Amino acid sequence: MKKNLKVLLLGYNGANNTGSEARLLAIIEDIRAILGNEALITIPTLNKENLERYLKEDKFLKVAPISSIFFFDIRKLVKEHDVLLLVEGSCYMDTWTSALLWAFLWATKCAKDFKKPSIAYAVDVGHLSSFNRWLVKREASKTDLILTRTESAAQELQKIGVKAPIQTTADCAFTFKTEKDDDEILKEIWPESDSGVVGLAPIDFYLWPVVMRPWGKKENLYKWPYYYSRSKSRVDGSERLALKWAEEADRIIEKRGKRVALICMEELDEPLAVCIKNKMKKPEMVKIFSSRKYNASTMTSILRSLELLVTSRYHAGVLSLEAQVLQIAIGHDTRLRGFYKELGLENYLLDYMSSEIWYKLEEKVNELLENPEAQQKLLKDGFIQHIGRARKNPEILKGFLQERGWKVKT
Question: Where are its TM segments located (predicted)?
Fold first, then answer.
């Protein structure tokens, strides 16, 4: 049996994204539980400094900076490792940018070329252009195993025509463990929050997708050559979105006597959060919590201390579920749709394009604050179901590696 397996974890790493951070740390735990602490793990990133906020390099864990034009770097890394794991949850979608999708498909192709086994580890499927659907069908079929985190994602891959073996588990972040010192962190950071806190985790839908171009306005630059999609109509859309969130936050404060936490699950959510707070009548009742400042453990503990969560971020819903925090989603892609379908919460999923969305949101917030029992059993049962499925991820990975002759822990 082979020893000291070299594992490459390719994902959205180093972006100060709470969900990606929680997933990555949970996956590293999975690998070490299977292979021991001497497994050689490499994590590529566009931003090494951000990644090192919560991961320290040592002889068994390496952070590998890669270029934003990633083809050569990824191919070299795949060649140097024994197995490839795609660890980004939003793996097979172009909602955010086609470039990220192409990076994952390119790595899969390279693994096939070099006869290295590859596995997509608890991933999702979302919007794809016609070209990208064709590309996913062709390249994702070269994966040795795809684990999807919802049944609807598995069905969509099959519908696209992907021929790789597919199994459904659940998101790795369900097994993420917080630090004990963070259990009461919200009260420590915000002593005035005793009256109860409603969390809002918004996304600026009008920034996406990020597109590749040789130049553009500096304020729209993500990382060259990637720029946010911006135009006058999109900027106006962002302003309207911030105003509506601000109005709902003020209503929660004035009518319900609650404080409001603006949760930035990714650093990129901060400008919208600041804009929302600036438009409010009662900004003194609001605090912004950003993944730029707080690590995944702290952010998760804050989420689990909320009385109610209104989220456009998938992982805010996932990470708060263990504490059975009441939740409502304003969705714009398939991730929350699939998740809420499995939880039985379809009535609490609102479409951000609906003309009645803010009226319906007010209605749902009132309903849950007045009658929390309407959700609590669904949340409890949903967590039990998902944590059980998430624990299958390392079991399946262990069997996958054993079949290929690698030594695993017994």
Answer: none
